[in-house]
Amino acid sequence: MVYEDDEETLPYTTIGTDEAKKMIEAGTRVIDVRQPAEWDRGHIAEAELVPLNGIYAFGKALKELNLPADEDVIFVCASGQRSAAASEIALVTGLQKVYNLANGMNGWVNRQYPIER
To answer: Of 33, 54, 97, 110, which residue is 20 to 30 A from 62 by alpha carbon distance?
Structure first.
């Protein structure tokens, strides 16, 4: 019997808020893909803002960061939807250790983890 579950397997890893916090505390890079107005309302202190303004612009902006292909990178948005798309784009740009923060900043804030404004 042939199973075609491989196509359902996401090429990036979705992580929860607690795991993300531990990774960030250990020095994992965080890229926030929200818009500047969202960022200004509160973001993870260690995050860098790289807005997801279209596939090509985002891919180019990621490339310009010159991240090592094997560096762990967590992508964050408000709820985990845009960061999922960002994670897929990141893989296409050559990053290999890509993580999507499930529930995004909503989950982070609900856990009452620290944010910066």
So the answer is: 110
